[in-house]
Design goal:
Elements lengths: L1 H10 L5 E4 L2 E5 L1 H7 L26 H15 L14
Antiparallel strand pairs: 1-2
C-alpha cells in the first residue's frame, strides 16, 4: 500500500512537500520544477522561509508565518493556506 502512495506522491503534477521538524524532508519532481531547482537536494533540509520572500503577501514575516502554519497543521492534522515561494532564480 505504501508503494501506491509513494507513486501518487512522485507522479503528481502538483507540488508536494513533506515537512519534518520544521524542515522540508521530501518533495516530488513537480516541486523541484515549480521552484526552478535542478535537484531535490537543493530543496530538502531547508526551512520553508528560506525558499520564500522575507514577507508573505499578507505582510507577515515568512519565518513567523511558516512556524505558525506548521503548528496549525500539526494541531489539526492539516491546514490550507496561501504561500509565496521564491524560484531558484529569485
Amino acid at each position: 500500500m505504501v508503494s501506491k502512495y509513494r507513486e501518487l506522491f512522485n507522479k503528481s503534477a502538483d507540488a508536494c512537500l513533506i515537512i519534518g521538524n520544521g524542515l522540508f524532508v521530501d518533495c516530488n519532481q513537480a516541486t523541484v520544477d515549480m521552484l526552478g531547482f535542478k535537484t531535490k537536494a537543493e530543496v530538502l533540509n531547508t526551512h520553508p522561509s528560506i525558499l520564500s520572500p522575507e514577507f508573505q503577501s499578507d505582510g507577515q514575516s515568512s519565518l513567523e508565518k511558516a512556524d505558525q502554519m506548521m503548528a496549525l497543521a500539526l494541531q489539526h492534522g492539516s491546514h490550507r493556506f496561501e504561500w509565496d515561494h521564491l524560484r531558484a532564480n529569485g
